[in-house]
Write a structure and sequence with these properties.
688 residues, five-stranded parallel sheet, 5 strands, 30 helices
Length: 688
């Protein structure tokens, strides 16, 4: 239905705007995909149409039709990006940028679908691989070589696996490089491959930098602004709303928008007309009464934690549907907060202005967010403005560092803590007071207040408390007042000498000049510290893109249908000739006796593997028949078929198998090796 409406929107557009309408339809389907990523990412076609019309009004006018179309396309694309970004969680913003880029290029037939599927799944169409042995298992692991031999079956990469075998030393240099995404590929491969194909190769040899490579790819195609999400701006969100449009804060763990909301209400001179209520059992009648009073008298109603009162959400939906411009006061606004909740009314989400207020992702983004809210007056509030500016930058940098250390997992913090802007604001206020009250800067007082009390109040692990105190002393110390004090050994991050006339502009210009991704050394970490978390980020990104691709029934660039690919993969698993063990015969060969406990282990392992083998032997032939239309495709078989297509182990198999983090192809090879190990045990006796 949505597709038909969008096509109608295209047909209704005048011929001169047809290219813009086509770009609009691509962007709409792109944001519609987000609904499968998180239940709160819901956007209506009507909302999108209004955005489309507004972009036509706001974009730069021109008498030349080609110039006008180009202006409309570029303006509308970025307009959609900024409006959607404010409602996305930080972990999904790069995903959205990449999805946007890929969908636009696919609309112009500039993306090979086989290559795209390889990038997000790690397998070629049909699971094809070249039958070559791993030449260097000491640095090429099983996943890498499986993906390399699959990559070699794609037309653009013909011969690359043989090159890796013949000239390992050159490829090892890329594997060991600090910046493999920037390295030049040997033997002319850099000139043979385009930037997207280089991403596919990057996945095979260094998956941990794929996210960085994706970011650079988006910059190359779309521009820098598509990877720099705009800072959170509550005023802009308010201006995009109206009296019938709810404003929804989508919460994340540790976030609390109440303080920012009250500050904004005071700024808008509505603080006396705000009515707040935290929803829960028995609060429904109060909430309805508050909304009724707000619609009549023109107040703001702020209903918190909607996810805690699911039974009342249908009433909330009715209230929003019954709002009418003729009967509602022009100053009325309905503000809501909720954690992601599948039961939240879709109609409310689709019409609402949605906002997330998480700490930005990345050191640069954190600093920009801290200074975006400031101005020249706020940087000169104390009697010691020069000291204050340097100490404030050090404090802001400290805040960004303790936030970003979470990406290193237990290497960063033993327990991940949800530090937020409130911690920074309180520390900033204390800094102003202390500087005015003391003649000399009391470093010890500032350190204890900030590290042990403000931030340390959230810390529950004593090692983490000691760590945060040590980190704080790197930022609050007399050396910070020296010109160009360095925060890292490379000297990329330092305390600048701000322009006396316009210090805020100086800080913003310096922050904009910083690299998008900070090296682990800035956080006091070894360069290898981020490999595990970077790998996790890469595969999370790919898995989400895979889940969106699963509903696409189209084939790859070679015209191979999804069903044919699944059947080929299923048949490939069948061809491995996985057979169940004869437990009774094995029990006679290796009886359970007191003198040999390993016999018990062997029998137990055979019984467990048989459960998996029998389940696979039952489902795979049925799946092949269902794909041919000879039996009904059940929900379980459909889930298995989608998993095979996406190169992931089906949940139904994983539930009766051993724990594994491998993809399907590597998991299948691993299963055969495990079964061979058991068979060798049976044939040759207990292994050494």
């Amino acid at each position: 239905v949505e597709a038909e409406k969008t096509e109608k929107m295209i047909d209704e557009s005048r011929n001169m705007y047809r290219p813009v309408a086509f770009r609009g339809s691509i962007l709409y389907f792109c944001i519609a995909d987000l609904g499968n990523v998180d239940p709160m990412y819901q956007y209506s076609l009507q909302w999108f149409r209004n955005l489309f019309i507004q972009a036509i009004r706001l974009s730069e006018a021109s008498q030349d039709i080609e110039t006008r179309l180009e202006s409309l396309n570029s303006f509308f694309t970025y307009y959609v990006y900024t409006n959607i970004c404010r409602s996305l969680f930080e972990r999904h913003k790069l995903l959205f940028s990449f999805l946007l880029t890929v969908r636009i290029l696919q609309g112009s037939d500039k993306i090979n679908l086989d290559e795209y599927m390889f990038l997000i799944s790690g397998k070629a169409a049909g699971g094809k691989t070249e039958n070559l042995d791993n030449p260097a298992p000491h640095w090429i692991d099983g996943r890498m070589w499986t993906e390399m031999t699959g990559l070699a079956t794609l037309d653009a990469f013909d011969g690359i696996a043989h090159d890796v075998i013949d000239k390992q030393l050159f490829w090892r240099e890329i594997y060991d490089s600090q910046e493999p995404h920037m390295a030049t590929l040997p033997f002319g491969w850099s000139s043979k491959l385009n930037s997207f194909q280089k991403l596919c190769f990057l996945r095979t040899i260094r998956a941990d930098v794929v996210a960085t490579g994706v970011m650079n790819y988006v910059i190359d195609i779309m521009g820098q602004k598509f990877v720099d999400p705009p800072p959170f701006d509550l005023l802009q969100c308010y201006n995009d709303s109206n009296l019938l449009t709810p404003l929804v804060f989508v919460l994340s763990k540790g976030s609390d928008p109440a303080k920012g909301f009250l500050d904004f209400a005071s700024k808008m001179k509505m603080d006396k007309k705000v009515r707040m209520l935290s929803l829960g059992q028995g609060q429904g009648a109060k909430a309805i009464k508050m909304v009724e009073e707000g619609t009549q008298k023109g107040g703001w109603v702020f209903l918190q934690n909607c996810h805690l009162f699911i039974s009342w959400l249908s009433e909330l939906e009715r209230i929003c549907e019954n709002l009418s411009a003729d009967t509602v006061h022009k100053d009325f606004r309905l503000w809501l907060t909720s954690m992601p909740c599948p039961d939240f009314p879709v109609s409310v989400l689709q019409s609402a202005v949605k906002m997330t207020n998480e700490p930005p992702k990345g050191l640069k983004a954190n600093l920009r967010n801290a200074y975006f809210k400031l101005n020249n007056d706020l940087l000169n509030v104390t009697q010691k403005p020069e000291e204050y500016k340097k100490l404030l930058f050090g404090l802001s940098f400290f805040h960004a560092v303790v936030q970003e250390r979470r990406i290193f997992g237990p290497l960063g913090w033993n327990i991940p803590y949800e530090f937020n802007d409130t911690d920074l604001d309180i520390s900033k206020g204390q800094l102003e007071i202390v500087l005015d009250q003391y003649d000399d800067t009391p470093w010890e007082v500032l350190n204890i207040l900030t590290s042990y009390i403000n931030y340390g109040g959230r810390v529950t692990d004593y090692i983490d408390l000691r760590t945060i105190d040590v980190i704080m002393k790197s930022f609050y110390n007399p050396s910070l007042l020296r010109p160009y004090y360095r925060f890292d050994t490379d000297g990329v991050f330092y305390s600048i000498e701000a322009d006396a006339a316009d210090p805020h502009a100086s800080y913003m210009a310096y922050i904009d000049s910083l690299p998008l991704t900070a090296v682990p050394g800035v956080f006091g970490m070894h360069d290898n510290a981020r490999i595990a978390s970077a790998n996790a980020d890469t595969f999370l990104l790919c898995n989400i893109l895979l889940s969106l691709q699963a509903s696409d029934s189209g084939g790859g660039g070679g015209g191979v249908s999804k069903e044919t690919q699944i059947e080929t993969i299923a048949q490939g698993i069948v061809d491995k000739h996985i057979k169940a063990f004869d437990v009774e015969a094995i029990g006679m060969m290796y009886p359970v006796v007191y003198e040999q406990s390993m016999n018990t282990v062997l029998l137990q392992e055979c019984i467990r593997y048989n459960k998996l083998i029998h389940f696979m032997q039952d489902t795979l032939p049925m799946l092949v028949l269902a794909l041919k239309g000879l039996v009904v495709m059940s929900q379980e078989l459909e889930a298995i078929s989608n998993s095979l297509f996406l190169n992931t182990v089906p949940d139904a198999w994983a539930n009766v198998a051993y724990p594994s983090m491998k993809n399907l192809l590597a998991w299948g090879d691993d299963l055969v090796e495990r079964l061979n190990f058991i068979q060798n045990w049976i044939d040759k006796g207990i292994p050494a």
